[in-house]
Design a protein that fits this description.
By secondary structure, this protein is α+β, with helices and mostly antiparallel strands. The protein has 4 helices and 3 strands, in the order E-E-H-E-H-H-H. Strand 1 and strand 2 form a beta hairpin.
């Protein structure tokens, strides 16, 4: 906005114009000190623009920053990365280690004896 009126980005500015840039929740205000034709480096910006943002806007920004982060009680809300990993570890089935599952049936042992020729063994 220029002097409180919404403008298109292609609008030319002149010396003395006050540009307002809205970045919620703050509206920054800058006064044009010198009109330029080309882009310039960041070191030259203070020669071109003057920050005239009111202190109440900065207070609003500080209040929003403080209110934005609210410490949560442990165990409430979305789990942290560490808490999620702990949950995954807890819910994953444990490796049974040396425990041997014997899936062979006793009938299979009898059938295997048929194939062994004990006389030629």
């Amino acid at each position: 906005m220029i002097d409180g009126v919404k403008m298109k980005p292609s609008r030319l500015v002149k010396e003395g114009d006050v540009i307002q840039v809205r970045k919620p929740p703050v509206t920054y205000s800058f006064r044009i000190l010198k009109a330029i034709q080309n882009r310039v480096g960041a070191k030259l910006v203070p020669e071109i623009l003057e920050n005239v943002t009111t202190p109440d806007q900065y207070e609003l920004l500080e209040m929003n920053r403080i209110a934005g982060f609210v410490g949560r009680a442990r165990g409430t809300g979305r789990p942290t990365k560490k808490e999620r990993r702990d949950l995954d570890e807890f819910t994953m089935p444990a490796f049974f280690g040396d425990f041997d599952f014997d899936f062979d049936d006793e009938d299979d042992d009898d059938e295997s004896d048929d194939f062994i020729d004990e006389e030629n063994y």
